[in-house]
Known about the structure:
Radius of gyration: 22 Å
Distance between the termini: 63 Å
Helix content: 25-40%
Largest sheet: 6 strands, antiparallel
Organism: Levilactobacillus parabrevis ATCC 53295
GO biological process, one term: proteolysis
Enzyme class: hydrolase
Strand content: 15-25%
CATH topology: Penicillin V Acylase, Chain A
Amino acid sequence: MGKAASMDGSTIVARNEDGYGPINPIKFVVHPATDQKQATFTSAVTGVNVPLPDHAYRYTGTPQADQSDGQYEEAGINEFNVGMSATETTATNARVLGYDPLVNDGINEEAMITLVLPYVKTAKEGAQRLGALLEKYGTGESNSIAFNDKNEIWYLETAGGHHWAAMRLPEDSYAIAPNQTLMQEVNLDDSDNFLVATDLVDFVTKYHLNPTPGTFNFREIFGTHGEDDAYYNTPRTWYGQKLFNPEVTDQQPTDQDMPFTRQPSKKIAIEDVEFFLSSHYNGTPYDPFGTFASGSADDQRKYRPIAMDRNQCSSILQIRNDVDDDHAAIQWIAMGFFAYAPYVPFFTNINDTPEDYKNTTTEVSVDNVYWLNKTLSVLIEPHFHEFVESVNAFREGCQSYGRARVAATDANLTGDATTFLTKSNAETAGEVSKRTHALFNDLVKQGLLLSKTAWEKGQNL
């Protein structure tokens, strides 16, 4: 969301990382700035080899614990307060792929953060660098990628193996991107607000790809509108726009023509973003937990929810405009199943991350935050209605604590900012982890009382 759409004037890019299955251990790290003469990057997935600039800026990331098939750093903020979310998996239609097929030796999701975020100073530069890399090396996937700095948000969508376009999000608007090509009208004459691949127009013209001549609607030219979109993707846009624009009542979950951007009916806060990212059609018949609204079993399984067992790590990349640049950037992180996990604010001008966020193992261990929250979901889901009050109280308490910690850190920052913020993050994370372990302790004890084999003392055999 643009800075005029947020309650405090921040730009915000938020993402949920989901795996193909419920297990994909994630850690939170920071990479120091590095001089690297004649360095290259080689992908563990595609083998592509890319020369790198001589200097890499410091940046945060949320990579996989097991990097045998790539880093997949997914979300982070660099030392120039540029945020990047990569990626949202999408699809290019079969007609376009006939002329520009995906490639096997290009730049895929696993490499995008690593190849772009350490080398850009603005959000627009991020879109330009990634676009140039896509044109040169190609990609084996269709994806959407978002960048933000304190003034702008740029949103880039790939199309086929080598094509792309990017738009600058209007400052007064928000956009929701649920695994679908969504950009609409692209103004090819407005380079302040749109960027495109160097041969995009010629490519579309040569192969007669535009179904609506006289316009350049990226979604119509390159996107998909299948039944899978209507049940997997569009319901999430419907629910988000229902939250942020409740006055809009004529949309249905399966509508294929919902606008990509809207002006919210009121300014949006971090807490609103957290609620949306951890939602599961709450208050509708489509909630798989059947909470607050009656819905049939079929209704509750009809649409793919936002919070689900495949959740891994959620990041809210917030660049603020009401404080100095040295502490303006915050990466709010939740790990595990987002309906249960708290969001923790991490200032990104740091030289280290807390131990239990960076020590994630491939095997289960409640000594790291990822597995602690994943284990909590195993406890909670079978007894959701018995535990939900405790879980919500825990999350709301952490939410208020996080807000207070940000305010206290802003007010008390002294000395070297990087050192101060690193220490402050450790204190914040330590308290939230302490509260999470306490919730774990309480739920284990409550769960033991719910056993179907319980037998009260004095009861006849």
